[in-house]
Amino acid sequence: MAETQGNDILVSFRGVQKSYDGENLIVKDLNLDIRKGEFLTLLGPSGSGKTTSLMMLAGFETPTAGEILLGGRAINKLPPHKRDIGMVFQNYALFPHMTVAENLAFPLSVRGVSKSDIAERVARALGMVQLEALAGRYPAQMSGGQQQRVALARALVFEPQLVLMDEPLGALDKQLREHMQMEIKHLHQRLGVTVVYVTHDQGEALTMSDRVAVFHQGEIQQIASPRQLYEEPCNAFVANFIGENNRINGRLVSQTGERCVVELPRGEQVEALAVRVGQPGEQVSLSVRPERVRINGHSSACDNRFSGRVAEFIYLGDHVRVRLEVAGQNNFFVKQPIAELDPALAVGDVVPLGWQVEHVRALDPLTAE
Ligand SMILES: Nc1ncnc2c1ncn2[C@@H]1O[C@H](COP(=O)(O)OP(=O)(O)O)[C@@H](O)[C@H]1O
Ligand SMILES: [Mg+2]
């Protein structure tokens, strides 16, 4: 597969490692192909190695081992300004003593673009982010959102083949952040440029990306489309980091092909998808999304059936989250659309509930860290 796709790959990390102190590997063994034109997000908790990976691609950090290819060419020795990469950071990094137009002209003049071409390209980049009217302003005369748009335009103005963004919306408030997410996504679709985007915000990653690489402790845990990450997490870390998740600990009884039987601490048995399990007798964690759990009459056709005691209702407008005590745990959540909620249901009620085998995944036990 890798061979037939050769021409579609823009960036390859091959066995890339990074240590700052010569002892601890911050990036452990990064192997990653980034396709031309895709929007790829590196998602993970703080300290998982996302920025370090991005900085190696940009050329501001050097890998301790392995190599990075850009357009099929090893770039380990190529300085940042020769990589044809645009960058956007959280803190904008605009030149405060330059106007918007001068900020945008800068990357072009250092590349030796002629004066008349510069004027034309600056105007086009300003149009892309709808800031034509503010060309003469200084950064301090603009809002955070406007400054970030300028930073975006500056990263795109020299028409790089690749744009890297490191938490570019982190300093903006929620509403503006969501607006800018859509703006960046649409800009990517229009321009067809390859984007590598870093965030610790899973909602942002799912909204914007073609593919997401989930980082944890310097390693990619899973790389997949947003939908696949959410529906088919490959391990307990991904299942818990992305979206909401009910977790039940148990012990593997047996495995038959893609399915397995898991025994819970009180002796109940659950049939589940055997996604990441060891040998019979070993610990596993079961993962079920709250919207996949059926309660009352809806549960009668389910493969796995339990009962639970209603502990709390949490109203969220269009849906309700019902917290239940199930299998000895008091943090089991069911997500119900308002229209499906039985109005007679009350705290303290014991109700039947269940889910289908294809919606419960047996994963590795979560280790406390
Ligand atoms: N220049 C540096 N020198 C030493 N350690 C660093 C440096 N940059 C990052 N680190 C360490 O590397 C780890 C990963 O950092 P980073 O790549 O910034 O993670 P992320 O972007 O996922 O939050 C952290 O533990 C951080 O303290
Ligand atoms: Mg970072």
From TrEMBL:
GO terms for cellular component: ATP-binding cassette (ABC) transporter complex. GO terms for molecular function: ABC-type putrescine transporter activity; ATP binding; ATP hydrolysis activity. It catalyses: ATP + H2O + polyamine-[polyamine-binding protein]Side 1 = ADP + phosphate + polyamineSide 2 + [polyamine-binding protein]Side 1. The keyword Membrane applies. The keyword Membrane applies. Residues 11-242 form the ABC transporter domain. Gene3D superfamilies: 2.40.50.100, P-loop containing nucleotide triphosphate hydrolases. Pfam families: ABC_tran, TOBE_2. Keywords: ATP-binding, Cell membrane, Membrane, Nucleotide-binding, Translocase, Transport. Its EC number is 7.6.2.11. PANTHER family: SPERMIDINE/PUTRESCINE IMPORT ATP-BINDING PROTEIN POTA, SPERMIDINE_PUTRESCINE IMPORT ATP-BINDING PROTEIN POTA. Part of the ABC transporter complex PotABCD involved in spermidine/putrescine import. Responsible for energy coupling to the transport system. Belongs to the ABC transporter superfamily. Spermidine/putrescine importer (TC 3.A.1.11.1) family. This is Spermidine/putrescine import ATP-binding protein PotA.
